[in-house]
Amino acid sequence: MRPLSLLEARVLGVLIEKAHTVPDSYPLSLNSLTLGCNQKTARDPVMNATESEVQGAIDSLKLLHLVFESSGSRVARYEHNMGRAMGLPSQSVALLAVLALRGPQTSSELRANCDRLHRFADVSSVEAFLEELAARNEEKGGPLALKLPRAPGAREPRWTHLLCGAVDVSAMPVAPPSDDFVATSELAALKSQQAAMQNELAELRALVDRLYSELGVSKT
């Protein structure tokens, strides 16, 4: 499959999202689909596409068998066919849709933002499907996700989709390798260990003071 344009990826993402969030209105009309593409919330980047531009993206996606027009309605309505066309499970389709709609995200962010499309049990299951998308072989069309280098000041690396083609990471700021970097969970564990050691030290000091007192020995 050829790389998609930014608008084509947005159209596909909106169709996948709305299939789960507004099932009563799905498949979507051109007007509803355009409103979804230009939505101001939960979108990165924010777009201002016209109906004719969205229609052009739909027609291109239909040629790729990623979108098709439903029959039996006076108004043309559209639905996605991504899972079948690309041989992807629903979990992977949900992840790619959220990445196409919201831009690069961490595994934790993806788990939260995918909740209405697919409820992942934990972050590790999200990462398992992302790794599978990143390792997708060329016979199936090549990788569809990429783990980006950890940015300066960030606790976790972010993931991005490759529906629009390869991503140039060479110009992205990268956090220098450092043994001093500690994740939030590790920091909490260290604080807990420190508190336990302080309590043990206080108990030992109290025991030593009591022994000195019982033996009648001066600590000096």
Structure description:
This protein has 220 residues and is mostly helical. The chain has eight helices and five strands, in the order H-E-H-H-E-E-H-H-H-H-E-E-H. It has helices at residues 6-21, 30-37, 51-63, 82-86, 90-102, 107-113, 123-134, 184-215; strands at residues 28-29, 67-70, 77-80, 145-147, 159-161. The strands form two sheets. Strands 1-3-2 form a three-stranded antiparallel β-sheet. A two-stranded antiparallel ribbon has the order 4-5. Strand 2 and strand 3 (77-80) form a beta hairpin. Helix 1 packs across helix 2, helix 1 packs across helix 5 (90-102) and helix 6 (107-113) crosses helix 7. The longest helix is centred in the C-terminal third of the chain and has 32 residues, at 184-215. The termini are far apart. The relative contact order is 0.10.
List the helices and strands and how they pair.
Elements: H1 6-21, E1 28-29, H2 30-37, H3 51-63, E2 67-70, E3 77-80, H4 82-86, H5 90-102, H6 107-113, H7 123-134, E4 145-147, E5 159-161, H8 184-215
Antiparallel strand pairs: 1-3, 2-3, 4-5
Helix pairs in contact: 1-2, 1-3, 1-5, 6-7
Query: Radius of gyration in whole Å, from Cα?
Result: 26 Å
- Helical amount: 40-55%
H-E order: HEHHEEHHHHEEH
Distinct helical segment count:
8
Structure classification: mainly alpha
**How do the strands of the widest beta sheet line up side by side?**
1-3-2
